[in-house]
Amino acid sequence: MKKRVLVLHYSQTGQLTNVLENMIAPLKSAKNIEVVMTKIESTENFSFPWSFFKFFDAFPETVYLDGPRNKSLDIANIDFDLIIIGYQPWFLSPSMPMSSFMKSDEAKIILKDKPVITVIGCRNMWIEAQKTMKELIEKCDSRLIDNVVLTDQSGPLESFVTTPRWMLTGKKDAFYGLSPAGINAQDIKKSSRFGERILEKLNANAEKKDEPMLTNLGAVKADDRFVFSEKIAKRSFRIWGKLIRLFGKRGAIARRPIVVIYVAFLFTLIITVVPINMMVQTLLRRVFKEKNDKILIEIEKPSGR
Ligand SMILES: Cc1cc2nc3c(=O)[nH]c(=O)nc-3n(C[C@H](O)[C@H](O)[C@H](O)COP(=O)(O)O)c2cc1C
What we know:
This protein is α/β, with parallel strands linked by helices. The protein has one domain (3-225): Rossmann fold (3-Layer(aba) Sandwich). The chain contains 13 helices and seven strands. The chain has helices at 15-28, 52-57, 59-63, 96-103, 105-111, 127-139, 159-169, 185-189, 192-203, 224-245, 256-271, 273-287, 289-299, and strands at residues 3-9, 33-39, 82-87, 89-90, 93-94, 115-122, 143-151. α1 (15-28) runs parallel beside α9 and α10 (224-245) runs antiparallel to α12. The longest helix has 22 residues, at 224-245. It is globular. Flavin mononucleotide binds at residues 11-13, 15-16, 55, 58, 88-92, 121-126, 163, 167.
């Protein structure tokens, strides 16, 4: 009997769709595997590129996992052997269409008791989002067996310019000596190695065990410079998010002044606290290497490097 793999995802620019297509190509060409690729569609059109206000006004509801409903997927009656979920962090949380799906009754039916592999395609800050995703997966009574993370080719500081430029103008080319935005094409191409391993594991019925399939493939590498920064930033998103939500619903004109104040605060943080924190983290990493390595190993579970 054929094994069924569900590949469920959301992608605005198509980048994550591209990652997943490369990844599952080996599964698609296997005769004993049926791959169902399904795109999550929100009832709201998150148009791309974003306008300045729509982008920043989206953060409170993203962080509070309070996005609009999605359209029905019509796959709740299909039994899958393995589920691959592709998502992107928005403001250190799963994107709104993804968190809306994970909170839906439909997700609770589709994911129940199933092994799940998460695939993240993002700028470089995914640790807090994956923490939330793990909780959402647990609430669906499913088992996270692997996590694959592909990050942008720009360095951590230059991506503070290149990613927002891409999101707000649609332009991702190299400019003024900065690298292009988005994930490197070679990294995307090389993600077929994950599909090859999944195929091998499915053929050995490994999905029935509670073990990772993608170990020793470089599936994930946590950057210790972001562990602390993400924690602080997520806390600040929650505080500011709560405050902004007092001024009305997403899109409300009354929210605009406070959103502008928040952006000014965020920008100040990015040019002052972030570089200092990155330097301090680099220093602390050397001093507390052993403790630090343990934290990273925990974050990188279940797949590991
Ligand atoms: C509203 C918004 C917020 C984002 N926040 C983050 C973030 O917190 N961390 C990160 O690494 N990337 C972030 N990104 C970049 C996305 O994770 C992703 O790389 C980009 O949106 C392209 O994904 P897609 O076209 O496949 O949807 C954000 C993008 C958007 C649109």
